Amino acid sequence: MTPAMRFHDYLDRLGSSWYLYANASNAFKDFLVWLAASSNQDQPAILMPSYIPAKLYRAALAAGYAVRFYEVHGDCRFDLDEVERQLGTQTLAVFFVHYFGFTSDIEGMSALARRRGVVLIEDCALAVDARHRGRELGTYGDVALFSMRKMFLYPEGGALVVSDRFRDFRPSYERRVSSCYSFPRYLLQRAKYAYVRLTGGADPLGLVRAGPAGYMDGNTQQRLSVKMLSPFTERRLKHVDLERVVQRRRDNYRYVLERFPLSTAVEPMHRALPDGCTPYSFPVLVRRGDRDALRRALVREGTVAGVGWPESPFDPALARTRLLSQTLLELPIHQALTRKQLDRSLRCVARSVRSA
């Protein structure tokens, strides 16, 4: 029998070196600080997509960067010409996100970054063991970010993969996350998954809660401590069956897609699962009706539905991104879910479609 592929083996394939962090935003800030210092740039700038979580924006500010945004809209599309127009002499890096595990014009962005001499940071926090046209995600950029917290359902965990171009990089951890933080949260998380499996996806005790929304306080002076992964989570990471996680996510996505109600009121962002894609969630666009009301209904049914990053965009002029942030809804399809739980989500969406 072929041994299961471990996360460490996977990271070894992608770059010359890799490092583990408390989360991906810690890794992002750590690399940006190093990049600015090695570039001797007093006023470094980074170009980021307009649709991102506030914590990534805060991490870039904490690293001392000026942040400019290129607009993401519709089904997470962007205009490559707009990206190029915004690249300035102080721009050290451009940031690219594989939204919900699906990619867009990563080849075009990679070619642009090479031509203009800027660093491409590839955000793979919502993807793992994924490929685009046969090439592994995480190898298009000069560095890549991953999230074990998101893809493996861990209490914490992020990784930074570094290409040969920056093999001199070394992390600057300020402290390490305590296992006293990670272990109780792991137990609580396992208990919640056992509870909803036992109830067939229902939530009779009202324990299921939507996650907290991100925030941006408007302050350009931010602080972020760079933390290393906890010993507890690091030990667990050595035993994760990466292929099983990937296959379960793909199977769950296809299951939901095949049974999703046909409607123009609530539509899948992607009507197919591309070869090699490892989905983080099942993103849909609520074109008619109340997106937040549907989310509340799903939570009452025991489904922790996400809404992307409603705190985006951080520039009020980006109206198309604002529309995206107000209409997107994510159905969970992660590896801990059962088919009964997926069916409950589908029935809830079907009821919403009928009412719309």
Quick gist of this model?
With 356 residues, the chain is α/β, with parallel strands linked by helices.
Q: What is the level 1 CATH name of the domain at 7-168?
A: Alpha Beta
- Shape annotation: globular
Mean pLDDT: 94
Find the CATH topology of the domain at 7-168. Answer: Aspartate Aminotransferase, domain 2
> CATH superfamily of the domain at 7-168, please?
Type I PLP-dependent aspartate aminotransferase-like (Major domain)
How would you characterize this protein structure?
With 356 residues, this protein is an alpha/beta fold. It has a domain at 7-168: Aspartate Aminotransferase, domain 2 (3-Layer(aba) Sandwich). 38% of the residues lie in helices and 17% in strands. It has twelve helices and 14 strands. The chain has helices at 7-14, 24-39, 54-62, 80-86, 106-116, 148-151, 179-198, 231-237, 242-259, 291-300, 319-327, 339-355; strands spanning 17-21, 45-49, 66-70, 91-97, 119-123, 131-132, 135-136, 143-147, 158-162, 175-176, 227-228, 266-268, 281-286, 328-332. A seven-stranded mixed beta sheet has the order 1-9-8-5-4-2-3, with helices on both faces. Helix 7 (179-198) links the parallel strand 10 (175-176) and strand 11. Helix 2 (24-39) runs parallel beside helix 3 (54-62) and helix 9 packs parallel to helix 12. The N and C termini lie far apart (51 Å). The mean pLDDT is 94.
